[in-house]
Amino acid sequence: HRYLLPPASVAAKMRSLLPLIVAVAAIGNVAAISLDSESGKVLEEALHNDQLVISVKHIKPRRRVRTGVETLLAIDFPGSRQKIVMQLDRRSRRVVLETTENGRMRGQHFTVDSLTEDSIINSLVLSIQQNRPQPHIALYIDCEKQGVINTPRTLRDMFLTMRNPRLQVYRERRYTMEVDSDTTIERVLNRNNCPDTVQMQAIEAAAPTLNEIQRVRGDIPIIHDCDDNMLVKAINELVTIVKQLREEVETQRVETHKLRQLLEECDMCQPGERWT
């Protein structure tokens, strides 16, 4: 499914003024974004899929952003202390993803060498993989892959763990946003007129290994999620390994003791004696 969310009209912006004030108070430094109820409904339907793609088009530099950081998108899960915010940091040449998971913040970023304070981004594409065991997000800017970051807690996880699941989307209304589900990243790239070579790279990198995720991600290790079952399994494996090591050490100790006895009882091995 593909959903096209065009820039809002002046009337729509006026209607969203009150929710915008609430959004600023709830989310923080997001002065340029406003509540988009339609996008919230679309994303809420799409996030049940294993893969979804969010595209933002025609991003022009904001002249009034003194810090060089512009918030493009924020997804809030009201009442759950969970949210995700995507920011564009032109001065540091980064696309930043900040997630709050049960009140704890995780900051991750993509380094984009082509990003400058004056550059125009024709297409920014987030390919979101939510299936286990390696959920992740890949970023494409103007058809070029910028890397992959892992997401221990996915959008679907945040949504389904709520007592009364719901979400709110705040976004920069000057830009067109699209949400795709039940599709592939190569189809989205093709729609953005990306070369075939880029699409082939996207297919090959559809399921990155854990080593690749660790190599290309640029995260700030604020927290580390740990599943209870995985922790118990790891402890049991560690106990088994320690037990095996103890048995091996004991075996070596016994063998060393026997070897010492043999050397002590060996007449030919006694020092200071010669045999003719």
TrEMBL record:
CDD domains membership: TSPcc_insect (cd16081)
Alphabetical list of InterPro entries matching this protein: TSP/COMP_CC
Coiled coil, from the record: 235-262
Limits of the Thrombospondin/cartilage oligomeric matrix protein coiled-coil domain: 226-270
UniProt-listed Gene3D superfamilies: 2.60.120.200
Endpoints of the signal sequence: 1-32
Keyword tRNA-binding among UniProt keywords: no
Record keywords: Coiled coil, Signal
A Pfam family of this chain: COMP
Protein name: Thrombospondin/cartilage oligomeric matrix protein coiled-coil domain-containing protein
Originating species: Cuerna arida
Lineage: Eukaryota, Metazoa, Ecdysozoa, Arthropoda, Hexapoda
